[in-house]
L-rhamnose mutarotase
Amino acid sequence: MAYSEDARPTPFKRYCKTLSLQADAALLATYRQRHAPGAAWPEIAQGMREVGILDMEIYLYGNQAFMIMDTVPDFDHDQAMQVLATKPRQAEWEALMATYQQTSDSATAAEKWRPLERIYKLGA
């Protein structure tokens, strides 16, 4: 679910998603390492920028991952995810990340990361 935001110099959409990871301390540690600053493959970040993702953050609580994704205002989520899937090394990255996630190897990024519904916003 997308929400228009005005907190940035230009308007953007924000998506919040969640994903369950394997409840294994070693796998969680490696997942963290794969997402440490500079550890993600440059092609992955480049592909995200090319489809209109402005910024992304991932948070962990136990084995639950929470993503905040800010995009350009006219971002079409489903279309962008389809295009992103064709970007260099994206399928390879998704297959590698699937080893840490409670999902099937054939699931798409959109099937893994489930949208969250915003139910409260301070000042709204």
Notes: The chain has a mean pLDDT of 91.
